[in-house]
Design goal:
The protein is mainly α. It is 53% helix and 7% strand. Helix 3 packs across helix 12 (270-296), helix 4 crosses helix 7 (126-140) and helix 4 packs parallel to helix 13 (299-328). It binds tryptophanyl-5'AMP (TYM).
């Protein structure tokens, strides 16, 4: 029964080309969850503009993310796929929640602190500061039960829960309190050159990340250059963070546990291990890449999907927005 399914909401912002981290930490799990939940997967273009974007890149990436969702196996017939800016309730709910959120709690967000640490007060956009409120609006408008994300988004989920609980307390039960769903493998893929940092699309050194669109020879090169250590044994240990990261990548792709992987490479060196990791990534991404290219040549199909998605998302989110407006004391039109 459709109606009884729990609700999932998640999304990715088109602020750079997507990495293997986005794929393994988010998209690959959405594909696994889509049959058991009512799912909304959105392209978060309003979040992307919290930092300056080149308009034509933003347009291209927005469609590309939609294509990536579909190419990775998210069924556009069963799930609601839409572009955030097509659903005005997100911006409106965000304002209503802004008036119920405190500077103190926003200042504690580590993502905000990281992103703003090298900027002066006069160059930090207010959007960057308010970012988590818009994210809370995204999630709460759909009465979301579960938000599948990588570890880096956990804190944003916590503030969304706090905002929802506060609203419920002040204005009576309105929102479902959402839970984060962090996948067992792949939740935090690290930079290939610096294992203390997460793999990120905004990283400057391209050897640190693998892009979903990287061709096979580039993937091979980046994995063979990935920083490891001088121990020469494939072990799943914090003392070998580079190797641990490669094991996590292989585990997220193959569904083998880290222990099974360690066993498989007993007595073998890094060369063979790395070459298998590269091959696994290539085998995983190649069919997705081909499908993305096909979809990007069929803009009218993508348009059909995002229009249909926006219609459904508009309908559901407007219901929640009206409820919020009424409870706050805004006169309905
Ligand atoms: P974004 O666009 O930075 O990342 C999208 C998703 O990819 C995951 N991710 C990773 N997972 C594992 N290892 C990595 N190295 C890695 N890098 C990124 C992220 O955890 C995320 O799940 N604020 C969100 C976008 C957003 C959103 C939402 C998400 C806006 N509204 C509502 C869920 C629900 C973000 O910036 O994700």
């Amino acid at each position: 029964m459709e109606e009884n399914k729990k609700v999932i909401f998640s999304g990715i912002k088109p602020s750079g080309d997507l990495t293997l981290g986005n794929y393994l930490g988010a998209i690959k799990n959405w594909v696994k969850l889509q049959d058991d939940y009512e799912c909304y997967f959105s392209v978060m273009n309003l979040h992307a503009i919290t930092v300056r974007q080149e308009p034509k890149d933003l347009r291209r990436r927005t469609l590309e993310i939609l294509a990536i969702y579909i190419a990775s196996g998210i069924d556009p017939e069963k799930n609601t796929l839409f572009i955030q800016s097509h659903v005005p309730a997100h911006s409106e709910a965000s304002w209503l929640l802004t008036c119920n959120t405190y500077m103190g709690e926003l200042s504690r967000m580590t993502q905000y602190k990281d992103k703003s640490k090298n900027m002066g007060d006069s160059s930090i956009g207010a959007g960057l500061f308010n970012y988590p409120i818009l994210m809370a609006a995204d999630i709460l408008l759909y009465n979301t039960d579960l938000v599948p994300v990588g570890t880096d988004q956990k804190q944003h989920l916590e503030i969304a829960r706090d905002i929802a609980e506060r609203f419920n307390r002040l204005y009576s039960q309105t929102f479902t309190i959402p839970d984060a769903y962090i996948p067992p493998a792949g939740a935090k893929i690290m930079d290939l050159q610096d294992s203390s940092k997460k793999m990120s699309k905004s990283e400057e050194n391209p050897n640190g990340y693998i892009l979903i669109m990287d061709p096979p020879e580039v993937i091979k090169k980046k994995i063979s250059r990935a920083v490891t250590d001088s121990l020469g044994v494939v072990n799943y240990s914090d003392d070998q963070p580079g190797v641990k990261n490669l094991i996590n990548i292989l585990s997220a792709i193959t569904n083998l546990s880290p222990e099974e992987i360690v066993k498989k490479y007993e007595g073998k060196g890094y060369a063979e291990f790395k070459s298998d990791v590269a091959e696994a990534i290539i085998n995983e991404l190649e069919p997705v890449q081909n499908k993305i290219q096909e979809l990007m040549e069929n803009k009218s199909y993508l348009e059909e999907i995002y229009r249909k998605g926006a219609e459904k998302a508009n309908y559901v989110s407007m219901k929640t927005l009206r409820k919020m407006q009424k409870k706050i004391g805004l006169i309905p039109r």
